[in-house]
Amino acid sequence: MQQNFLLKKEKLNEFLTALSKEAKVFVPALNENNASCFLPFKNQEIFLSKRTSFSPKKILLPPLEKEFIFRKKSSSFKIEHLLDSKKRVFFGVRSCDTHAIKALDKLYLEYFTEDEWYKAIREDITIIALQCSKSCENGFCKSMGTNNPVGHDLLFVEKEKSFFVEAASERGKQVVQKYRDFFNQTNFIKPEPKLKFGKKLETFGLKEILDKNFSHKKWKSEAKKCLSCSSCTQVCPSCYCFLSFDKFILDSGDSERFRAWDSCQLKRFTKVSHNYVFRESRESRLRQFVMHKLSYFPENHGLPLCVGCGRCISVCPVGIDLTEIASTIRGDVK
Amino acid sequence: MPKKIKAGFYSLSCCEGCEIVMFDLEEKFLKVLNFVEIVEARLFDGKHPKEKLDIAIVEGCVESDVDKKHLLEIRARSKYLVAFGACATIVGIPGIRNALPLEMQKKLKRKAIIPVKEKALPLSAFVKVDALLQGCPAFTHEIIDVLVKIYHGIVPSLEEVPVCNECKERENPCLLFEGVPCLGPVTYAGCKALCPSEKAQCIGCRGFTKDGNFEALREKFQEMGTPKKEIQNLFTYFNKDPFTKEEGEK
Can you list the domains of chain B with their CATH numbers? Predict the structure, then answer.
């Protein structure tokens, strides 16, 4: 029989402090510029009111990651791999972000046949999901079918002055077992908060509609507004593209290989030999972002890459809205 | 280790602040000296003037014939020439006078100690520039990067990445939502979004990207209610006005 528990809200920081003794705990909190993001737990106030402006992607895929060092030997060189395997706990991951992690897993653990660096970080993560109790203005997770968390170990649902806790995996049960003092057993059933969503995206047959309207005039008119600032891809929890480059170490013959976030909104993304850029126009770059999320990735991997968190809509300074683009194109199809 | 590369630091019309930045390298500066021999520099007491150079690092813009002559002479004896700082790459502060009315320009000209040219121009207007070190002042990590790359025979190239990219990486909320006119979307990154992270708007000291959507950004500023004069000043502070094209320009 499934066992459910309650954790008093005032005990939350105590519980996280206990967790952080054996693992690195990341929690949603406000940074020095008042933006909500995932930060290492330092007994600060936890940001619980809504989903964070920035996703936990940066922990799984660091913006700048050192992959290995080439050590120069007299006639050859040695490669020293740098893997970051630590015990980590993510607290307060929203449903949309758990789906984004699922998409990243699909890519980095299956499609890329076990990316060593991703695997090292991913292997020992305990995910404590937090069910949203309020709707968010730009979210459309219901439309994408990502409004219920997946792949988490524990699920927290706010219930008055407590959290309703459900152990969803073996790892989750072990956590509850280990910190049993914090939890009270309960007979309550899981509360199902009723949510309203600010945005909607009709996904039925969307792929075909977008594919057929590749040169729709909407792309051009949106591109006219677009600043190509790449904020959308930076905040997206499932944007996974990276670039690779080498750097010389200052005073030895050795060098380092880095991996850094890249963005399809930048010209360098498609720069090939002879400095040729094959996605030169802003229109084609913007279209790539939307099409990759809603058409190419679902086709290739069988799950949506857009998880409906609406961060790209919230962050865009000129108000480009993925759902609005999709519905305009759909509206013009007879 | 193979032979050291010979480098020289030169100043044309500027505040010499970029050269001072070299001292911010502190102990790293000693590491730089392991593979770089500084043959000529006013501030570091280089001892071999007029020597052939592997790399000439030139700060400041060209404002007079003296500057021009000096620049051509440096170019003639150096393998690589690096434009150092905002003045050398995009004219920056000295370039503000380019946009002044003719009357005021004449007044300024009379007050100058040495005869100045009609316009302050960047190095690229006169000579081939191999690499750019942008920013006012230039950034220490980039100076090392360029020196190490050239030491290994690689000419660094410029990437079309706007400041916003690094700003979002640092998880800053967008200043444009707070009504602050910020030039981040059209300015070259590399500064790790130094100013926006401190809640100050980007003023474009690293130069405008070729890819920037200036019209859309201006529209956004107007929508935010930024006064017209302020918008004009912002776009022409460090950079040449992106909305007016001069004769002969593409």
Answer: 5-151 (3.40.50.700), 163-236 (no CATH)
